Amino acid sequence: MSGGSTSAPSSVRGMSDVGTFTVRACTPDDIPRVLALAAADEERVMGRASRIVEGDIRDWWETVDLAAESWLLLRPDDDTVAGVVWLDKQGDELAVAFPIAADQEVVTDLVDLVERRAAEVGLQRLHVAVLSPDPEPERVLPEKGFHEVRRFYEMAIELEAPPPAVVLPDGFTLQAATVEDARAFHETLEEAFEDHWEHHAQPFEQWWERRSSDPDFDVSWWFTVREGERMVAAIRNIPARNGGVYVASLGVRRDRRGRGLAKALLIHTFRRSFEAGFPRITLGVDATNPTGATALYRSVGMTSELETAVWEKSLTT
Question: Is 308 in contact with 287 (CB distance < 8 Å)?
């Protein structure tokens, strides 16, 4: 895995002013080291054991050109990791950076690296996503001209028993997806997410290649709701993530919202997860989601256990 699109070579790597660290690109072989760093960072901020796994790192890097737009900072004396950051482009104008530092004084170096690369490739805006609360990023980012624009929650539930069977409104049916459903599944989610913050549509072929080539791809964990022959809602789940099952995508077409279809898919996922030996289910959500998703998740017993802040800087002023 080398990430998504290929970018022009970076002149940022190898800069002599990145402290006293050795700087190189990440490779798939670095996944265990980055996992250890990310888990330690989460434990430091949240005060509890992390449950992330190597599959989470693969997901994070799915659309990243690691060769040109990732940076691993190594201490030259013992080759241990001091920090890592990567740049995930969202179209031609925006990229999101994810800095993780073993030493908090490295946060500034990591932000400098991605900001210079973003300017080098002509991006107009840069987002930096960090766990919250975390004093050092919260000090560094405003000093560098960033302002907070969004919050995301990671929500979870630990089931003690399976929930009741799902009952859908008349005219709707719930079923597992098959590979033949892939195009309709993609179309349903794209429509559902059109009004979400910073959503960037993906062509079907690109989306399907990324989904089906994932080592953990298992379409039996994808579920749909149909009205007649039309798919109107869909949920994509990934087992063995974050200590259980991770809900990667959940959406309902606009003209069929307000009928309890998202809740039905979520409850069905809970039942399937519990039956498969995964009583823990997690998902990520925009704290200000326009569809009221956060309230829905709380209504079925999910609680927030991790918070991420997104900071933005304009690179055109």
Answer: no
